Amino acid sequence: MESSYIADRTSDGGMNRLTLNDDDKKVREWFIDQVKNYGCTVTVDKIGNIFAIRPGKNNALPPIGLGSHLDTQPAGGKYDGIVGVLSALEVLKTLHDNNVETYAPIAVIDWTNEEGARFSPAMMGSGVWAGVFTPEWAYSRTDLKGAKFGEELERIGFKGDTPVSYEANKLSAHFEVHIEQGPVLQAENKPVAVVVGVQAMSWFSVELRGREQHCGTTPMDSRADTLLTAAQMIVAINAVALATPGGLASVAVINATPQAINTLASHVQFNIDVRARDDALLALLEAEIAEKCEEIAAAAQVKIEVWDRFWTSPRTTFDETMVSMVRQSASDGGFAFREIQSGAGHDSVYTAKRVPTAMIFIRCKDGISHNPAEYSTPEDIAAGAEVLLGAVLRYDAY
Ligand code: HGY
Ligand code: MN
Ligand code: MN
Ligand code: MN
Fold first, then answer.
1. What rounded mean pLDDT belongs to the chain?
2. Which residues line ligand 1 (CB under 6 A)?
3. Source organism's superkingdom (predicted)?
4. How far, in Å, from the CA of 81 to the mean position of ligand 4?
5. Residues of 274-295 as b/e, b for ≥16 C-beta within 10 angstroms?
6. What span, in angstroms and rounded, lies between the C-alpha atoms of 57 and 232?
7. If exposure means fewest CB atoms within 10 Å of the residue's CB, which of 15, 37, 192, 230 is most exposed?
């Protein structure tokens, strides 16, 4: 896991390799160095997606894509995304070391900004490639310090010259290995899962406007207390999701001004992450959360100035032929496995909009992820890479 040392390590061993920071630049350069050992040509597109292409017998065919991401959360783990790229590198190495010439070329891909933790939304690089976002919109996104995505991409030297689109960088299919980021495989004592799809999800930005008032002189019954209102909304959002089986809702970012200990907040911004097993349930959750928050604001003389669902991703179902190749590869490899729908978003959500796609999950300890304690055993990582190789060879022969 040499790549995990290319990062600002947090005190508890976490990884801070936020997209487009200096460590992301270094790990991209490390990745390009690695793939050169396996006879790959490298192209970087205009959103920084890196395609390392190993030629096959018939290079007129679009490559079989093996992708994931190298960016992390601010206090992330060493496996989320990284295992997918390293497993793909392992497949390249195995083909190279055994002089296997595939029929189609193989592309190992580092998708830009999968996490969406610094510049939202998530899965941005694969989303632009799939035609879901425009490059200009992506370039305009800013982080909490006001840095612009497009300027950061140029600063680290990874604003490539290849147009960023499926048409300019065709793939014939896409496989992705990823840690499960949940507890199911450990509970069932299985090393791998065949991922059949990804749940629906939306991200919101909410802004509330109250009144700055003196904490010491304003009577408790005549306040327009924005931070209190936000807190009541956060409790209500949690209650709606708790009461909705198959639904999840979280608030993990909040900003209040003026941040003076003796002045009631006049403005609060917070984000909501809503997820559900299907689109109908997501819509129901979104409507109920909005209704509850409107009631709370009305009772508090606080105005909801912004209620912006700035990103939504419908439920994704992966291609059955691809899923069956992963299933067959896991079974031929003698691995105990199960099928699963992913709770987390992945670049495969967007590649699935353009090409047949499937994913392989590997077990992770206690289901922990987006946390320094994230861990998968070398045996399970090897199992994931072996299932990936088997699926790729099946697809190549198909
Ligand atoms: O948000 C997600 O599910 C992923 O980590 N981008
Ligand atoms: Mn990931
Ligand atoms: Mn993640
Ligand atoms: Mn993800």
1. 96
2. 114-116, 122, 344-345
3. Eukaryota
4. 7
5. bbbbeeebbeebbebbbebbee
6. 62
7. 37
As for the ipTM of the complex, it is 0.90
Structure confidence by residue, pLDDT tens digits, 25-49 = 999 999 999 999 999 999 999 999 9
Is 103:397 a contact under the CB 8 Å cutoff?
Answer: yes
| Cβ burial, residue 257 (10 Å; 0-12/13-18/19+) | middle
Name the fold adopted by 22-198+315-397: Aminopeptidase (3.40.630)
Residue 307, SS3? strand
Q: Which atom of ligand 1 is nearest to the CA of 117?
A: 6
Instruction: Pick from 114, 118, 179 the residue to mutate for probing ligand 1's pocket: most ligand atoms within 8 Å of its CB.
Output: 114
CA of 73, closest atom in ligand 1? 5
* Domain range summary for the chain, segments of one domain joined by +: 22-198+315-397, 200-313
Contacts of 215 (CB under 8 A, 6+ apart): 261, 262, 263, 264
Ligand nearest to the CA of 178: 2
Give the Å distance between the CA of 368 and the centre of ligand 3: 11
Separation of alpha carbons 314 and 341, rounded Å: 13
Rounded distance between C-alpha atoms, residue 397 and residue 284, angstroms: 44
Which tens digit of pLDDT belongs to each residue from 328-363? 999 999 999 999 999 999 999 999 999 999 999 999
Residue 1 has a pLDDT of 61
Angle at 69 between CA 68 and CA 75, to 5 degrees: 135
pLDDT in tens, 75-112: 999 999 999 999 999 999 999 999 999 999 999 999 99
Query: For residue 140, which phi and psi values (nearest 5 degrees)?
Result: -80, -15
Nearest CA to ligand 1 atom 6: 115
Q: Measuring CA to CA, which residue among 270, 268, 269, 264 is closest to residue 223?
A: 264
Ligand 2 centroid – CA 303 distance (Å) = 36
pLDDT digits (tens, 9 = 90+) for 237-270: 999 999 999 999 999 999 999 999 999 999 999 9
pTM, entire model = 0.94
What is the radius of gyration, based on Cα positions, of the chain?
A: 22
Given CATH 3.30.70.360, say whether it is the number of domain 200-313: yes
